[in-house]
Amino acid sequence: MFLTSYREKEAQFYKEKERRLPKSNDYYSQLHNAIFYQMYYHYYHETWTEDKVFDLIGEKHESLYGLFDGEGFAILEFLFENKASMIRDIWKRTFDFGYQSGFERRPFRTKHSIGLHYRRMISFLSGFAYLSALNLNLEEYLKDPNKSENTYFTYNGRKAISYTMAHEID
């Protein structure tokens, strides 16, 4: 029951955002659409392939570090509304850590490669989308992190909960 409800809320989150996607053909409208569809389809969108998105980002940015500054901030506002500033701050802090993930990761750090950080960015944004779709309240989560749906949030929210807690501590 919980899982069905969760998936419905997640689908509703994405469908509502999709209706509001920019229709313009300017750079940042295309970037909005590209990032959104990469999150929604988990990298497998037929129009916005990873290579096309790399090329699009590379037109105006040398790295993903400052992608959400200036006009790019509108992408986070579109996706996360009042949490956009927090998510941008957390995104910039993630560059202090290695870009690889998984059991075989190596401790390399770099701020200069779109390709190296791209999947991490989509995973990062998707994690916050999971939490946003369910309106997760951090205070409620911390009261009982072992509750079944909270462990589900932890897994599917990827590192978003940990990042949020670290941001609150900072």
Task: Describe what this molecule looks like in 3D.
The structure is a single chain. It is built from nine helices and no strands. The protein is mainly α. It has one domain (2-100, 110-169). Helix 1 (2-19) crosses helix 6 (114-133), helix 2 packs across helix 4 and helix 2 crosses helix 6 (114-133). The chain is globular and about 45 Å long. The termini are far apart. The model has no long low-confidence stretch (mean pLDDT 77).
Short description:
With 170 residues, this protein is mainly alpha-helical.
Question: Radius of gyration over alpha carbons?
Answer: 16 Å
- H and E string: HHHHHHHHH
Look at the helices and sheets and give the structural class: mainly alpha
The number of helical elements comes to 9
Mean pLDDT comes to: 77
**Count of discrete domains:** 1
The largest β sheet comes out as: none
Shape descriptor reads: globular
Secondary structure: elements and pairs:
Elements: H1 2-19, H2 27-40, H3 50-60, H4 73-80, H5 84-93, H6 114-133, H7 138-143, H8 148-156, H9 160-169
Helix pairs in contact: 1-6, 2-3, 2-4, 2-6, 4-5
Structural features:
mainly alpha; 9 helices; 170 residues
